[in-house]
Amino acid sequence: xxxxxxxxxxxxxxxxxPAEEVTxxxxxxxxxxxxxxxxCALALQSLRKWPWDVYAIRLGAVIAALVVWQLLxxxxxxFIIDFRNVPAPLDVGAQLSGLLSSSDYYKHITVSIxxxxxxxSLATIFGVIVGVLMGRSRLVRNIxxxxxxIVRPIPAVxxxxxxxxxxxxxESSIIFITYLGAFFPIVLNTIHGVDQTDExxxxxxxxxxxxxxxxxxxxxxPGALPSILAGLAIGMGVAWFSLLAGEIISGQxxxxxxxxxxxxxxxxxxxxxxxxxxxxLGTLSTWLVMRLSxxxxxxxxxxH
Amino acid sequence: MFQVTNQxxxxxxTAPVLETAEMATTKGHRHVHxxxxxxxxxxxxxxxxxxxxxxxxxxxxxxxxxxxxxxGPSGCGKSTLMNCVxxxxxxxxxxxxxxxxxxxxxGQDRGMVFQQHSLFPWKTVEHNVAFGPRMAGCSRxxxxxxxxxxxxxxxLGPYAKxxxxxxxxxxxxxxxxxxxxxxxxxxxxxxxxxxxxxxQTRHMMQESLLDIWxxxxxxxxxxxxxIDEAIFLADRVVVMSASPGRLIADIRVELxxxxxxxIIADERFVETKRRCMELIRQESLRAFExxxxx
Lengths: 304, 294
Prior knowledge:
The complex is a heterodimer.
Chain A: H1 3-16, H2 19-49, H3 52-74, E1 78-79, E2 81-82, H4 89-100, H5 103-136, H6 138-151, H7 156-166, H8 170-195, H9 199-207, H10 212-247, H11 255-264, H12 268-293
Antiparallel strand pairs in A: 1-2
Helix pairs in contact in A: 4-12, 5-6, 5-8, 5-10, 5-11, 7-8, 8-10, 9-10, 10-12, 11-12
Chain B: H1 2-12, H2 14-27, E1 39-48, E2 52-62, E3 67-71, H3 78-86, E4 93-98, E5 101-102, E6 110-113, H4 125-135, H5 140-153, H6 169-181, E7 187-191, H7 199-216, E8 219-224, H8 227-233, E9 236-241, E10 246-252, H9 267-293
Parallel strand pairs in B: 3-8, 3-9, 6-7, 7-8
Antiparallel strand pairs in B: 1-2, 1-4, 4-5, 9-10
Helix pairs in contact in B: 2-5, 4-5, 4-6, 5-6, 8-9
């Protein structure tokens, strides 16, 4: 509504309404106008608060790197790095747009995501169970801790030969390697969370008649939840790490296999695409874990 | 803030209790009229780690419905003695009984209020209070109706859906009291519950506690090191000495109820306070000298 119209409205009301109603209406209009301008000001403020300069610099930095990379690759520079073997960003982009319309690319991605889901779910179930047992029982902790300390530092790649020998199918050995990667951060974070149980809350629960099982469900697990969820986020990252190692052995599908095969097939542009896809999937899935776990931690917020 | 909530509390105090009483008679499986706890503490001693004597040979009888304050310098073992009644500490010698039944461990017949409110931070105010009834086997609906009744009594009805982190210290402690009462226990055990609150809030809480106690007619053991608080609240002030923790005096507070806040200027109040101070002072000095020797 334009200002003129408002003014006209006002004049009309002056003619037909008693004086006190008019002032009340004016006051209402005024407060409405105030509210509107306040909203605008707030919107502006949040726009202004958005750190434009920061993002401009970051975007600029990425673009600059792409331009330099393009120049180096296009001219086949060889200085320490052999840029003749590194496909230029524009070539990679063209290749990607082709891949995006082929079902093959998506097949690799879905297979990888499937493996991640299976391995990560297993790691979550066993990680939390083992972590809670180790957190609550000295005996269990002392029995299992040495295994964790021995096995945990072994990198996923080192597991490949043994995993192939141990499991009947390639698929199961890949899932096993992925599972191992996710398992350790989840166990260790669960133990840490359970260790932090507030004993005064356990006492409170006991005095209210809670059984040991109720204390586990209502006190220990919710108390450990922030730490467990942090473990899940870390575990998800490591799972992708390990999956990639595992997929090198698979002769079928998977984004890691796609990347590795591209090397063998001298499809260098696909290597870059594979690498970027892995990075993106890893980041997205970790973000998803954190995003999904947020509602479970709402009680930590001091003000709504 | 407290004025508002206090006003909100007053008119609701009677109605919800009647409601629960009715509820109980119709359903017939829950004692809403409180079984008053008769506490016997017989020759209790607690020894920690071989030679540190926390409580030595304490004997105390608390009549049903009595309000008893355990008063003493910090570290005198008053909390330990109360934890024996709660069932968290097993006495090295002697026995505690409630209505002639020996205490074997923590139980629903004794509600606890802790110094650090100890609310479950991941449960809403209502679910905190409903926790006890749920553990006692009440249905979800029953438990939350009990919770709402008690929250109304402590003036926190409108805060039922909030999480503890969003409440002030005094409000958290009121939730703690409501939670402890939700199982309709025989005995209420309070371990310096108002110690962490500011003076104003503390006074408000003391007054509402007396209202609640009056309503429930429940036996209360209240641990404190604040002489004024002890006298203002209690029927009897039991004074403890430090290292080893012994009961050294049992002072009956001859002040009529209900007690208005001005009562702290009353002659008898001042006289009782003088006696307590004298005892505490001697004890503190002795404890100080003992520590000096060590």
